[in-house]
Amino acid sequence: MLIVLASLLTIGILVFILSVRAKDLPQEPPVSPFAHLDERKASIYENLRDLQFEYRVGKMSDEDYQPAKQDLQKELAQVLAGIDKLKQELGAGVKSVAPAAKRAAKPICPHCGAQFEKVMKFCGECGKKMEAAR
Amino acid sequence: MENLGSLAVLLAFCLAVYAVIGSVVGRLRRNPFLIVSAERAVYSVWLLITVAAGVLVHALLTSDFRFAYVAQTSNRAMSQSYKFAAWWGGQEGSLLFWSWLLSCYAAVAVWTNRKKVRDAMPYTVAILMTTQTFFLILNAFVVSPFQMLAEDGSIVAVTDGMGLNPLLQYPLMRIHPPILYLGYVGMVVPFAFAIGALITRQPGDRWIHVTRRWSLITWLFQGMGVLLGAAWAYAALGWGGYWAWDPVENASLLPWLSSTAFLHSVMMQEKKGMMKVWNAVLVSASFFLCIFGTLLTRSGIVSSVHAFAQSPIGNYFVAFLAVGVAATTYLILDRLDFLKSESQLESVVSRESSFLFNNLILLASCFAVLWGTLFPVISEYITGEKISLDAPWYNRLMIPIGLFLLFLTGVGPLFAWRRTSLESLRRNFLIPGIAGLLLTAAFFAAGMRNFYALISFGFCLFVALTVVGEFYKGSRAISQKNQMSFARAVVELTHRNTRRYGGYLVHMGIVLMFVGFTGAAFNQDKTAEVKIGDAFQLGHYTLKVREITDGDNENYTWQHAKIDVFKNGEQLDTLEPERQYYKASKQPIGRVDIRRRINEDLYVNFASMGSDESKAVIQAYIFPLVNWIWFGAKVVLFGTLICLIPSKVKLQYARTEVVGIAKKNVPVEA
Hints:
The complex is a heterodimer.
Chain A: H1 2-18, H2 35-56, H3 62-97, H4 99-104
Chain B: H1 2-28, H2 32-61, H3 68-73, H4 80-85, H5 91-112, H6 121-142, E1 150-151, E2 154-155, H7 176-186, H8 188-200, H9 206-236, H10 247-272, H11 276-299, H12 314-334, H13 351-383, H14 391-411, H15 422-445, H16 451-482, H17 486-496, H18 498-519, E3 524-531, E4 535-538, E5 541-552, E6 556-567, E7 570-575, E8 578-582, E9 587-591, E10 593-596, E11 600-609, E12 615-624, H19 627-644, H20 648-655
Helix pairs in contact in B: 1-2, 1-6, 2-5, 5-6, 5-7, 6-8, 7-9, 8-9, 8-11, 9-10, 9-19, 10-11, 10-13, 11-12, 13-14, 14-16, 15-16, 16-17, 16-18, 17-18, 18-19
C-alpha cells in the first residue's frame, strides 16, 4: 500500500513538474518603460502632499517649508523631463519599427467589438469578460 | 510509514536542487518552460515536506516509539497538544519544522508573484531553493527525524519515551517557537527578492514594493517571538526575569535589530532614493543573522540555559554562512554603481539624518550583542579559555544605546525632511521637551537617584508626547477642515497614511515597553528558608506559608505551597507556586506563581525543599512595571497591523485610475 502511495506521489509530482505547456506560461502584464520614473513621480507627489500637510498642521516654519517645496518641485520637473526624454527616444524607435503591430495589439471585446487602448479583464462597454480578447 | 517520510525528504532535496539549477539555467538560456518547471518544483517541495512532516506528527501523536525522535521528545503521559509541540521540541524535528515553514513561504511567495518581476524571479527561486536545499541536506543526511530504534538489525519500540523537556511543557511554548520561526524563516523572502533584483539590475524599487508586507510581517513575527520567549522565560524558568542576555535570547534579538533598521531605511529608499546600499546590506544581514540564530540555538557552540539540542551540525551552518556571506558581499560590491543614491544628505538636523542615526545605532547595538554572544568562542580561539560576558556587561553597553534609540524615536518624526530650522525645532520640541525634563526633575525631587531610570522616564514621556502631538495636530487639522468629530478625524488621519500612523503606534508601544524595562532598576528579591506558619518580609509585602502539600500524576510528582500575601496587615492574595519532578526525563522544575498588577508583579518561586525536609526554599521578587512590557507588546502588534492596512489615499488613487475608454456610456447592469 505504502509503496503504491509513494510511487503515485513520485510519478504525480514528476508529471506536474515536467509537463509545462505553452498555455501554462505566465503572461506578465506589460511593464511600462517609464515604470521606475512613474514610481519616482508618485513618491515625489506623496512627499509634496506630506510636506504640505506638515506645514498646515504647524509642524514646519515658513523658513523650512518654502525651500523644501521648491526643491521637491525641482526634483519633480527633472523626473517629468526624464519621462519626456524617454518618451521621445522610445517614440522614435517604436514608430519606425512597428506602428501596425501596435495597432493590431489593441484588445477588442469578443462580445460587442469595442476596442480599447489597454488590456482589460472586463469590457468597459458591455461588462463581459475579455480574457479571450488577449 | 517511516520510509515514506525519508523518501519524501529525499525527493524534496532532489527537487530543490532541480529548482535551483532549472531556474538559473532557464533564466540564462531564456527558456520560460524550464523556469516554470522550476517553479512547479517549489510547490512540489512544499507538498513533499508536508508529507514528511505529516508522518512525523502522526508518529508523535500516536506515540510510535519506534522512532528515535519520538522516544526522545515525547512520552505517553503528555497531552496531545504537547505531543504536537514536540515536533519543534528537539533537534531533528525543529529542523524539519524550519524546512517546512521555508517551503510554505517559498511556495506562497512564488505563487503570489508568479506574474510579477518575471525577469528576476528565477534568481529569487534559486535563492529560496538554495536555502531549502541546505536545510534538506540536514533533514535527509545529517539529523534525520526518521531514524528508527533498532536492535540486532530489526526495528524495535521502547515502551515509553523520555518526554519533552519539562521547561518546554508550558502553554506559551506551544506558540513561542512557531512564531519566532515564522519570523526567522520569513526573512528569506525579502532577501531572495533583493538578490534577484540586484543580479538582474532591476530599475526602481520594485523588490521593495513586492516584499514590503513580507518584511513587515516577518519583523512582527520576530518581535512577537522574542517577546513570547521573554514572557516564557519570565513565567517558566523561575529565575526571576524575562531577559538574561543568554546567547539564544541574543540570537533571536539580532535579526530583529537589523530588520528594524531595514524597515526604517527602506522608507528612505522609497521616499528619497537614498540608502540603497544600506538596504541591500541590511536585508542580507537580517537573513544571515536568522541563519546564525538557528546555528546558535541548534548547534550548541555557545553554552546557554536553553540551547535545548546540541549536535555537530554547526560546521554545516558555518559553511553555509561563509559561502552565503561571501557571495552576497561580492554581489553588493559588484553592483555598487546600481545602488547609487539619488539624493544627498543636506543637513545633520533633518529627518534623513535621524534615519541614518537610527540605522547606525541599531547596527551598533546589533554588533555589540553579536560580539558579546560570540566572545566565548573568540576568547577560546585566541586564549584557549572560554570567557563568557555576563548580563552586567551587556547592560553597561545596551542601556545607553537603548536610551539613545528611544530618544531618536521621539526626535525623528519632529525633524523636517532636508533641514530643520530653529523655529521648527522650537515649535515641535518645546512642550514634549519641557514635560520630559519636568518629569525627570519631579522624580529626582521625590528621591529617585538611579541615573538611567531618571533619563529613561524623561525620554519616555518626551516620546509619548511627540506621538500624541502628531496625532493631535493632524486630527485637529482634518476635523477643522472637514467638520468632523475629533475621534473620527483620528481614524481618518490614520487611514490616510496607515504606514506612518501605524508606525507611530508602534513607537508608542516601544515607549510603554521601555517604561517596563526601566522598572527593572527597582527590582527587589529575597530568598527565605521557611516552614509552614513562617512569614518573611519583601518590600511592603509580608509572605506567610500556609501549607505545603504533595502528590503525583502520570507525568510528574509535585509539591505545592500556599503562601498568603499581606500588606499593612491586610491579606491581599494567596500565591501557589509548585515544584514538579518529571518522571520520564527525571528533571525537577519550579512553577512560579505571579500576582500581576499594573504597578508591579509579586513573583514567588518554590525553589526546593530546604536542608531540613520540613522547610521550603522560597524565592520572592518584586518586579515594578513589568506588565507595561506585555501591554506595550500588544500596542506594537496593533500598530503593525495598522501599518499592514492599505492607506485610503492610495485606494482612491487606484480606483479612479483610467484604464480604458469605452465608445459610449452605457448604464451599469445590476
